Amino acid sequence: MSIAENLIRLIKTLTGNDILAVVILSMTPFIEVRGAIPFALGLGLSPFDAWLFCAMSATLAVPPILLLFSPVVALLKKLPILNGLICALEEVIGEKCQKIIGRAESRRKKRGPSRRKKAFVNPGNASGGDDIYTAKSPDAVKYRLLFFLAAAPIPLTGIWSSGIIAAFLGLDKIKAFTAIALGNLVSSAIVALLMRFFIKQMPLILNAVIASVLCVSIYTIGKIILKSLTRDKKAD
Q1: Residue 147: per-residue pLDDT
Q2: Residue 154: what are its φ and ψ, rounded to 5°?
Q3: CA dist 127 to 73, 109, 122, 144, 154, Å?
Q4: 44 vs 57, which has greater pLDDT?
Q5: pLDDT tens track for 85-138
Q6: CB atoms within 10 A of CB 140
Q7: How far apart, in whole angstroms, are the C-alpha atoms of residue 30 and residue 217?
Q8: Which residues constitute the domain of residue 186?
Q9: Over residues 12-24, mean pLDDT
Q10: Rounded distance, CA 45 to CA 140, Å?
Q11: According to the model, what pLDDT value does residue 59 have?
Q12: pLDDT at 205 over 90
């Protein structure tokens, strides 16, 4: 019996309900819809039902992430035993935000404003300063990045990554939720469609998902712990 089959049996035993198991997996960090949809199909759900339950469940997890991440982090930082780890976590998130936004900004500047946007140049700015497109673009870029982070069904993306980045950057919660929810629908649809064509390879796909989740989890946790130890050495 494969790892995937053992996992399906274990989760079904623990939850006692197939739908509840799918809901929990859809909301779980690192797993989310890219792991929950293959799991749902392995339980016998149709591709449409798998897409619907997983997409809705993952979307329900977004508001708590946006609303509670910053307060919970602030509370945990007050505990001496966790202060180093939480500060390291913030550094990891900050580095990821800077890399993603920096790449997007550099690409936008290389492309320059579109012809349509050039029509909105401020006529009172004779010095050739920023136009309306340039002035408004930073926030627009961030919300587009949230959408693409949620829509890409690959490791280190999804509702948790995009939700935490939105909370870290202090973005508007309603706009951030809209971008993430739409991206999550796209990600769920992509995974469901792929699974429809590769249904016979379901055990292999589930094993690959499990392996990727383990690798990403170990990498992320290891990076946070390493940064925490580095901070402690500098403090000493």
Answers
A1: 93
A2: -130, 165
A3: 45, 19, 10, 30, 45
A4: 57
A5: 888 888 878 777 777 777 766 776 666 655 444 444 444 444 444 433 333 456
A6: 12
A7: 7
A8: 3-235
A9: 81
A10: 38
A11: 94
A12: no
Note whether 179 and 57 are within 8 A (CB). Answer: no
- Phi/psi for 34 (5° steps) reads -70, -20
Look up residue 207 and give its amino acid. N
Residues 6+ apart with CB under 8 A from 89: 73, 224
For the chain, the domain total comes to 1
Position 129 scores a pLDDT of: 42
Q: What is the rounded CA–CA span in Å between residue 21 and residue 13?
A: 10
CB contact at 8 A, 13 and 219: no
∠44-46-52 over CA atoms, to 5°? Answer: 120
**Residue showing tokens 């759900």:** 45
Cβ-contact 40, 22 below 8 angstroms: yes
pLDDT at 176: 94
Residues in the chain: 236
The Cα 179–Cα 49 span in angstroms is 23
Separation in Å, CA 80 to CA 86, 207, 220, 225: 10, 39, 22, 15
Measured between its terminal Cα atoms, the distance across the chain in Å is 50
How far is CA 22 from each of CA 19, 88, 151, rounded to the nearest angstrom? 5, 32, 19
